[in-house]
Design brief:
The complex is a heterotetramer of chains A (145), B (666), C (302) and D (188). Chain C contains 13 helices and 10 strands. In chain C, α2 (16-28) packs across α13 and α4 packs across α5 (79-93). Chain C has a 4-stranded parallel β-sheet, with helices on both faces. Chain C has helices spanning 9-12, 16-28, 44-50, 52-68, 79-93, 96-106, 119-134, 155-158, 168-175, 199-215, 226-233, 236-243, 254-262, and strands at residues 2-5, 32-35, 73-75, 115-117, 137-138, 142-145, 179-180, 220-223, 251-253, 284-285. Chain D is globular and about 60 Å long. Chain D is 54% helix and 0% strand. With 188 residues, chain D is mainly α. Classes of the chains: A alpha/beta (145), B alpha/beta (666), C alpha/beta (302), D mainly alpha (188). The interface between C and D is large, with 56 and 56 residues. The structure holds flavin-adenine dinucleotide (2 copies) and iron/sulfur cluster (8 copies). The site of one iron/sulfur cluster (SF4) has 13 residues of chain B, from α9 and α10.
């Protein structure tokens, strides 16, 4: 059997991490193909229900990444994101969502190398955790199927 | 029914070398709702754009997805093409298969699959895009220039001469910046003061420029065209409207032994002082930390001798509020002090000085009236060592970059030294001579050929003092790395140029980004070198990275040009990608519960309370309302609203969920 | 108060007086130093010159034995041993596979819970505060404190004082009433373990050190390492030959200097064992002085 | 960061990178190490030059390095790394080069005594668990045949009580021999 290829979704802000990932490209730094990037104006925009949505549609791991503290293009969006994540994480733990599969990080527009590293380590970590079948099975399609 | 067009770009070989573009196009053609799909060599070229325009018309498309480079690069291009084809420009999305795919992966099925996924996701998104109209906002045609060094001066004068109002805020008691401290300037050796002072005076006299010295930025709110800025004007303890600059106070102040900042500690100044004779404005300030009266309630001599009665011991800081349309950041840089170098004695040897101190020694108006004398005992140094790259290009010390100006000013120092000490010998320890500029290399050659500077290629390992001499130990890497020891009378370290104090806090107040060394970041290193990522805020001079005078001035004129362009229109068109609280007629129906959780999270105070009244004028309920002029579209309010009453254009709930759904259900 | 102790070979042999003076001052201020049972030589330069794993394993065995004996803090007066121990601990704690391999080689398990102190750290933490009440004589001499290489380098691992122009010994000596001079050779190498095999280099390097100290008027060189001591003291004949002049500046261990100030018998401190005779006389009674003991700002220690 | 597309680096510099993690490409030949090295004057190639020879990757330069005096004269004093702006860790590189030089039988004749001294030193530890200075001196003299060196040192040391006539033996000498067998003596 070929190695398990985890599906990773990255929720990133437009100003820092999206631009950082662009820089990874411009610098031609290679990383794992497993990630799909979703662009948000700011991490503050990220509605955490989207994380459960992503798991339900087959993601094995999620990266949430935006500007470093104090560097938010909109001053404080990333702080609000953090704060809400704290609350949401408790909820996840309560609901039995595996929060090890959600990686939070800061990648600035200048950190192309860091972006590649984060994707690669997340892919490896999630590969170790295996497919998130327990969650995928519960997604509606599977139940009805 | 959606009719989406998909355009896969090869970007020459940039994409097609790793992604099978025709295959992606074929697969995309089968996505539900896709009416047209094709691939092409250069989508952004004229024929590429025509392809889009024609396809929209021919296939009656309702939206397009251009799968190419990053939207941060070409989104405006294709929105324009979209509009040309007769669609609303916001019916266009870009799928980033270059930066996020072809450039970061190897050729293969996985990469193709990723490209397909990215396209599918954008197809699902664009189906849900709304037609949007650009927002127009008025522009306040006044510019704020922060920092009054040569860059700030140039920017202010250019903008003022274009006919616009300028407010200049300078932290020190005088404008002039580092250039006012320099003796003569490379590569022509003109006297720095001689060329700068007239420009400083012009700033003071230009009716379009309002100058605040001894002032700092307290806060900045608003957005391009409409910034509200609070300026803290620190108390000078002198009434500027009365003071005539006679200088009686400074001559009579008995408290004279305070280290002179302008002379970098190599001289003293009174507690009430003007930083240097040509200061603009020529109005003294009292240093409250040193004045005898402020410290123990006695003295007031300055008050007695001041004829116009301008001294104000009870003066307080003043906060001034101004409205401006654009901001030029010109806060310059600083250099590392000699105590940064453990191996060169942690700054404990008096005769090891930094480059700016040497400028003061060489300056006719400096503490030695232009004679090169060493600080410890006033002797004229006969052997002098210059150490280039002191702290620069030194990752171990946390500064990996080249400070760019020091090769040139070190050559200048060697020349000036030889002009003043004819029997003296200058040695320069260097690693590379970086003199790329018009007449720059010729200048360093002149130091070597005409003024006998000895260049030794190697870094100095250690400097210590013995019997009044400084022993400089280096190696000559062009001579088998043999050790070279020079018994010098004085050593000048060309210390690294670093970000100015307070740069980080200022950047945070203005929401502009900065790099790991706290230098402000330009929006694009090649194509937007004077813009920041925040619209309406520009940067010039050494606050971006160490720069010499010609470069600082060029950038400043660039900024002035940009601001003049901005001010050329009285209205500004803004992207309509902003948030809205839902409203449905009839009268003011909304799912908003009036909890106002959204209000405090908005960084721009854009969320207001709107009162809903019945026919009799009684208050029925309060709803959130977003001021479209203030909202910058961060979307934080969208995420906090529990009743999902807010949505944000360009990133609507519907779009985001559709994207996530489309990504993985392949 | 009990602390672990690793004497090391030189303190048992050629540098007995260092051991004697450490013991004497520890006793005076009521600290018991407990030697690691059945300790072995750390291998010094020889091991790490010839074989990396050996150079890790010899110290590691000692560390493991110390842990087995329930010790938590270990005083290592020899700067060379101290350097080896600290480096080994650092390497093992930062390299899991290597740590495993070394544990296998030595047949013991070192967990890494020891705090390793050099003699100056030991003085700084346990002795300094007790000095004022116990000191009898003021050490009113001009001294050149010599740190050598192994106490301060590499700073990233040792994290002790600043690499260039360190101050800790100077501060201790100033507290005792000495005039600790500013000089140029504080951290220049003395030739270390090459005393026998490359004597010419040692004569030159140690020669420069002695010459600068004498030139600047020092009356004694203060050291904290047996290798420094033996190079500067036992090699004085070669040193004087290199410098072309005779020198009589004594080289004394910081522990001996403290012992002298504490009024401990000079014999008990082993001062008679030096090659260069030590004639420290004319001490005045100690009067406590407020000296500027602020540690210098520029400490690179995190 | 090395590029995965590049082929494996089989130069001596490549081996140093692989075995001791010291990256010589970082060295930009500033010479600061050579300027501070206390024995660079004794060396045939001061540290920065030694590195430059390795940077070229050319066989004749690598040969020079392995046969050099420099690698044996290095005192491991760490002055170079303490001041290197690029944090090129020279001492472990020297350790590795010494190892290679012995392994390939290329050690410089000038290093003879140094190697003999180290070996005599280790012998003492192997036999007793500790350093037996008297034994070391005798052993070293036998090995180096340098009978006259330091003839006056030992008697004075004895007189000052600094030399022991009999060796100290640790109890668990088996453990020590085990360590030697698992490390240095494994090589042979
Ligand atoms: C030793 C030395 C020699 C040099 N010689 C030459 C030469 O010969 N030729 C040459 O072309 N270049 C030379 N330069 C470079 C030259 O000094 C710079 O190019 C020039 O000063 C940059 O101008 P600037 O306006 O960007 O910054 P600065 O001169 O640093 O001016 C910045 C101004 O902003 C103010 N400011 C800072 N922070 C704030 C704040 N928060 N709020 C308000 N105001 C603030 C400062 O007080 C200052 O007045 C030399 C530099 C050095 C160090
Ligand atoms: C080999 C090489 C590699 C480079 N790589 C880089 C790089 O990686 N990064 C980088 O930043 N820079 C690079 N550059 C530099 C870059 O090419 C220049 O900075 C840039 O092209 C300058 O732009 P320009 O508009 O001033 O001049 P040009 O690009 O020379 O454009 C001048 C234009 O004016 C036209 N023209 C000339 N005379 C007349 C006339 N009398 N009437 C009308 N039109 C006229 C010409 O036809 C031309 O179209 C490189 C340069 C070279 C040579
Ligand atoms: S649209 Fe973008 S990807 Fe396509 S050719 Fe232009 S730059 Fe390259
Ligand atoms: S004496 Fe008065 S008028 Fe003259 S410079 Fe001083 S404050 Fe101004
Ligand atoms: S009151 Fe202060 S500023 Fe005025 S003369 Fe006295 S010391 Fe100088
Ligand atoms: S400009 Fe010259 S001296 Fe300054 S950092 Fe760059 S190379 Fe070094
Ligand atoms: S958070 Fe939502 S419901 Fe609450 S006031 Fe704001 S828009 Fe209305
Ligand atoms: S999106 Fe919401 S939070 Fe962000 S600026 Fe607009 S109104 Fe404020
Ligand atoms: S100091 Fe470091 S960078 Fe400079 S030559 Fe030596 S090893 Fe190379
Ligand atoms: S460690 Fe070796 S190479 Fe480095 S400075 Fe010391 S003796 Fe020279």
């Amino acid at each position: 059997m070929s190695e398990f290829e985890p599906k990773i979704v990255a929720f990133v802000c437009n100003w820092c991490t999206y631009a950082g990932a662009d820089l990874t490209g411009t610098s031609r730094i290679k990383y794992a193909t497993n990630v799909r990037i979703v662009r948000f104006p700011c991490t503050g925009r990220i509605d955490y229900m989207l994380l459960t949505k992503a798991f339900a549609s087959g993601a094995d791991g999620i990266i949430v990444s935006g500007c470093h503290p104090n560097d938010c293009h909109y001053t404080s969006g990333n702080f609000h994101a953090r704060r809400r994540w704290m609350v949401f994480k408790k909820l996840c733990d309560f609901m039995g969502i595996d929060t090890r599969r959600i990686v939070f990080s800061w990648v600035s527009a200048a950190e192309g190398v860091k972006w590649a590293d984060i994707v690669n380590t997340t892919v490896e970590e999630v590969r170790k955790l295996g497919p998130y079948e327990s969650y995928h099975k519960l997604s509606t399609q599977d139940i009805l199927a | 029914m959606a009719r989406i067009g998909v355009f896969i770009c090869h970007c020459g070989e940039n994409i097609s070398a790793t992604v099978d573009c025709p295959k992606v196009s074929e697969v995309a053609a089968k996505f539900p709702g896709v009416a047209f799909s094709t691939d092409y060599k250069y989508m952004c070229s004229d024929p590429g754009q025509s392809l889009v325009v024609n396809a929209i018309k021919e296939h009656k498309l309702t939206g397009i997805v251009v799968s190419a480079c990053s939207p941060r690069m070409h989104e405006p291009t294709f929105r324009r093409a979209c509009a040309e084809g007769g669609l609303n420009p916001y019916q266009c999305e870009m799928a980033n298969i270059r930066e996020h795919c072809s450039w970061v992966h190897e050729k293969g099925d996985k990469t193709d699959q990723k490209a397909i996924d990215i396209v599918r996701m954008m197809v699902e998104k664009v189906k849900r895009n709304n037609a949007l109209l650009p927002i127009k906002v008025p522009v306040t045609k006044t510019a704020l220039v922060i920092g009054g060094g040569v860059a700030g001066i140039q920017a202010a004068l250019d903008i003022a001469n274009a006919g616009h109002k300028v407010i200049m805020v300078e932290r020190d008691p005088s404008i002039g910046g580092h250039m006012s401290q320099l003796s003569e300037t490379f590569p022509t050796l003109d006297c720095s003061q001689c060329i700068l002072t007239p420009r400083m005076v012009e700033v003071a006299q230009n009716p379009n420029i309002k100058l605040y010295t001894y002032a700092e930025i307290e806060s900045v709110e608003g957005f391009v065209g409409n910034f509200n800025v609070k300026i803290r004007k620190k108390a000078k303890s002198v009434d500027e409207t009365l003071c005539n600059g006679c200088g009686m106070c400074t001559t009579k102040c008995p408290n004279k032994k305070n280290p002179n900042e302008f002379e970098l500690g190599m001289g003293n100044r009174p507690a009430i002082y003007v930083p240097f004779p040509q200061a603009v404005p020529n109005i003294p300030v009292i240093d409250k930390t040193q004045c005898t009266y402020y410290k123990n309630g006695k003295c007031k001599i300055c008050e007695k001798v001041c004829q116009p009665k301008a001294i104000r011991f009870d003066q307080e800081d003043e906060i001034i509020e101004v409205a401006v349309g654009a901001i030029a950041l010109c806060t310059g840089f600083d250099i590392k002090k000699t105590d940064f170098f453990p191996e060169y004695g942690y700054g404990k040897y008096k005769d090891i000085i930094d480059g700016l101190q040497f400028e003061r020694l060489a300056s006719a108006s400096g503490p030695t009236s232009g004679e090169i004398r060493r600080p410890s005992d006033g002797q004229v140094p006969k052997k002098i060592v210059f150490v280039a790259c002191a702290g620069s290009r030194d990752p171990a010390k946390g500064i990996e970059y080249c400070s760019k100006i020091c090769c040139m000013y070190t050559a200048k120092h060697a020349i000036l030294y030889k002009h003043k000490v004819h029997d003296g010998q200058a040695y320069i320890f260097y690693m590379d001579i970086r003199a790329a500029g018009k007449n720059y290399d010729e200048f360093t050659r002149r130091a070597i050929e005409e003024d006998q500077a000895q260049y030794i290629r190697g870094r100095v390992s250690r400097i210590y003092e013995r019997d009044g001499k400084l022993i400089v130990v280096g190696a000559d890497t062009l001579m088998n790395a043999q050790t070279v020891e020079i018994e010098a009378d004085m050593v000048v370290l060309a210390t690294a140029g670093v970000a100015n104090k307070g740069a980080e806090e200022l950047a945070q107040k203005l929401h502009v980004s900065y790099d790991q060394h706290k230098f402000f970041s330009e929006a694009h290193p090649k194509l937007k070198p004077v813009e920041t990522n925040t619209a309406g805020i520009y940067l010039a001079g050494a606050c971006q990275s160490p720069k010499d005078i010609p470069e600082s001035v060029a950038a400043a004129s660039g900024v002035a040009g940009k601001i003049a362009c901005l001010f050329a229109n009285s209205e500004l068109t803004r992207e309509p990608l902003i948030a809205m609280v839902d409203r449905q007629a009839p009268p003011m129906y909304s799912s908003c519960t009036g909890c106002f959780l959204c209000q405090p999270v908005c960084p721009y105070n854009a969320i207001e309370r709107e009162e809903v009244k019945d026919r009799n004028g009684n208050l029925v309920r309060e709803l959130a309302f977003i001021n479209p002029g203030l909202c910058q579209g961060c979307g934080t309010c969208v995420a906090v609203c529990k009743s999902k009453s807010i949505d944000i254009e360009g990133y609507t709930n519907l779009q985001m969920y559709a994207e996530v759904d489309a990504l993985l259900n392949s | 108060m009990k602390l672990g102790f690793y004497p090391g070979c030189s303190l048992e042999g050629a540098s007995r007086e260092y051991n004697e003076s450490v013991m004497a001052i520890a006793e005076k201020i009521g600290i018991e130093l407990v030697s690691i049972p059945d300790w072995n030589c750390c291998g010094a330069t020889a091991a790490h010159n010839l074989n990396k794993e050996l150079s890790l394993s010899l110290p590691a065995r000692n560390l493991a034995l110390a842990e087995e004996a329930g010790l938590t803090e270990l005083v290592v007066p020899c700067a060379a041993c101290y350097s080896r121990f600290t480096m080994v601990q650092h390497e093992l704690m930062h390299d899991e596979p290597l740590h495993k391999r070394v544990n296998e080689i030595i047949g013991k398990e070192y967990k890494g819970n020891l705090r390793i102190l050099n003699v100056i750290q030991f003085i700084d933490e346990y002795v300094i505060d007790k000095l004022d009440e116990n000191v009898k004589f003021e050490f009113n001499k001009k001294v050149a404190c010599y740190y050598g290489c192994l106490l301060v380098r590499p700073n990233k691992v040792l994290k002790f004082d600043r690499t260039e122009d360190p101050q800790t010994m100077d501060i201790v000596m100033k507290k005792l009433g000495a005039d600790a001079i500013d000089w140029a050779y504080k951290t220049e190498c003395c030739g270390a373990g090459f005393s026998v095999s490359f004597t010419e280099a040692v004569a030159r390097l140690s020669g420069n050190i002695v010459e600068d100290a004498v030139h600047r008027g020092a009356e004694a060189i203060i050291v904290a390492c047996p290798m420094c001591h033996s190079n500067l003291d036992m090699r004085r004949k070669e040193i004087d030959k290199f410098n072309g002049k005779k020198s009589d500046i004594p080289v004394i261990y910081i522990t001996q200097a403290i012992g002298v100030a504490l009024g401990i018998d000079h014999k008990k401190l082993g001062l008679q064992r030096h090659f260069v005779p030590v004639n420290l006389k004319d001490f005045k009674p100690f009067v406590k002085k407020e000296i500027d003991v602020e540690k210098p700002q520029n400490m690179e220690v995190e | 960061m090395s590029n995965p597309h590049h082929t494996e680096d089989n130069t001596l510099a490549g081996k140093i990178k692989k075995n001791v993690g010291v990256s010589l490409v970082k060295c930009y030949q500033c010479g600061k190490c050579s300027a501070g090295c206390p024995v660079s004057g004794d060396m045939d190639y001061p540290p920065s030059l030694l590195i430059h020879k390795l940077q070229t990757g050319l066989p004749n330069h690598e040969e020079d390095v392995l046969r050099s005096k420099s690698i044996w004269y290095c005192l491991s004093c760490e002055m170079c790394i303490a001041r290197c702006p690029m944090e090129v860790d020279i001492p472990p590189m020297m350790d590795y080069l010494r190892g290679e030089s012995i392994r390939l039988n290329k050690a410089n004749p000038a290093a003879k005594n140094i190697i003999k001294f180290h070996k005599a030193f280790l012998n003492s530890i192997k036999n007793t668990g500790r350093l037996y200075e008297m034994g070391l001196i005798v052993d070293y003299k036998m090995k180096s045949l340098n009978m006259m060196q330091d003839v006056t040192l030992a008697p004075t040391m004895l007189a000052k009580g600094k030399l022991k006539i009999f060796p100290e033996m640790i109890k668990n000498r088996k453990n020590i021999r085990q360590i030697f067998l698992n490390t240095i003596n494994k090589q042979k």
